[in-house]
């Protein structure tokens, strides 16, 4: 404390000496910024996948807020809540292309949003390369299966199945 | 705070933890939900039998939990977007979290009767 306060200007002895040591004829050494790309640095082989995934989470998130909260209102809150749900109720809603598109969009966005979220969770906590590989393999298999199954159900729904 | 950890505690970390936990729970429910809905391609009876379990009082509590998870994830997700894209987002992240929590409490109180009403009538009679 006492040593720094001896210089009246408040500038420590090192800074004071350093600033005056460099002139136009004797400039300070130039320090290259860290991680700067030069001609020698290898070309990036990675695209902007992580940035696209980050942006997708936000864009799909906004759409899903509307789709999912609307879905909850219809299925669990309005018109008797969960009690009214049954085959006839599903048939009534999927008779309209509007609700088919709604559910299809919700299925795809929610599955991809959730799959990317779980991919991040696996990346964060699974440390062994083999564990990561198997968990992601399982995740992608389950995701593709569920998206395809759900899509098939919406497109091939038959109200007169019986 | 233990040495060598990135976890900082307080509103920022705990909202992140809650976002993660609710997200994983919702995603696992989504798998089950697509599978149960797929039963409409099997037969109306198969679908109605499985949906009947969704109307039992115990599953109604799980549905209330699902609504809780979805509402928190949705509201906090909008907060995350505001933190990322709004220039003052990071500065007001705490205030936005408490707004999220306040809205969530109000919506959860509003959801009690619609989501749990039928279960209460079944358990206590009406």
Automatic annotation (TrEMBL), chain A:
Residues 1-44 are annotated as: Disordered. InterPro entries: SQR/QFR_C/D, SuccDH_FuR_B_TM-su. The chain crosses the membrane at residues 55-78, 98-118, 138-157. Keywords: Heme, Iron, Membrane, Metal-binding, Transmembrane, Transmembrane helix. It is found in: Membrane. Pfam families: Sdh_cyt. This is Succinate dehydrogenase hydrophobic membrane anchor subunit. It comes from Streptomyces thinghirensis.
């Amino acid at each position: 404390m006492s040593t720094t306060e001896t210089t009246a200007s408040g500038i420590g002895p090192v800074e004071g000496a350093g600033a005056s040591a460099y002139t136009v004829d004797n400039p300070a050494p130039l320090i290259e910024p860290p991680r700067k790309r030069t001609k020698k640095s290898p070309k990036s082989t990675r695209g902007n996948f992580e940035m696209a995934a980050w942006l997708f989470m936000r864009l799909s998130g906004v759409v899903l807020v509307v789709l999912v909260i609307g879905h909850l209102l219809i299925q669990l809150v309005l018109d008797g809540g969960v009690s009214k749900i049954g085959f006839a109720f599903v048939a009534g809603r999927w008779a309209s292309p509007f609700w088919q598109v709604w559910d299809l969009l919700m299925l795809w966005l929610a599955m991809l949003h959730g799959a990317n979220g779980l991919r991040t969770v696996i990346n964060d906590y699974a440390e062994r390369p083999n564990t990561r590989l198997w968990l992601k393999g399982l995740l992608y298999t389950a995701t593709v299966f569920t998206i395809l199954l759900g899509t098939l159900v919406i497109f091939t729904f038959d109200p007169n199945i019986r | 705070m233990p040495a060598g950890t990135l976890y900082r505690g307080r509103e920022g970390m705990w909202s992140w933890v809650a976002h993660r936990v609710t997200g994983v729970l919702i995603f696992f429910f989504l798998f089950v939900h697509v599978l149960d809905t797929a039963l409409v391609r099997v037969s109306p009876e198969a679908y109605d039998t499985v949906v009947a379990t969704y109307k039992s009082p115990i599953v109604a509590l799980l549905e209330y939990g699902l609504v809780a998870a979805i509402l928190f994830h949705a509201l906090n997700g909008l907060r995350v977007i505001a933190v990322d894209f709004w220039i003052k987002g990071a500065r007001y992240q705490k205030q936005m979290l408490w707004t999220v929590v306040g809205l969530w409490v109000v919506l959860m109180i509003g959801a009690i009767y619609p989501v749990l009403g039928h279960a209460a009538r079944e358990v206590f009679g009406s």
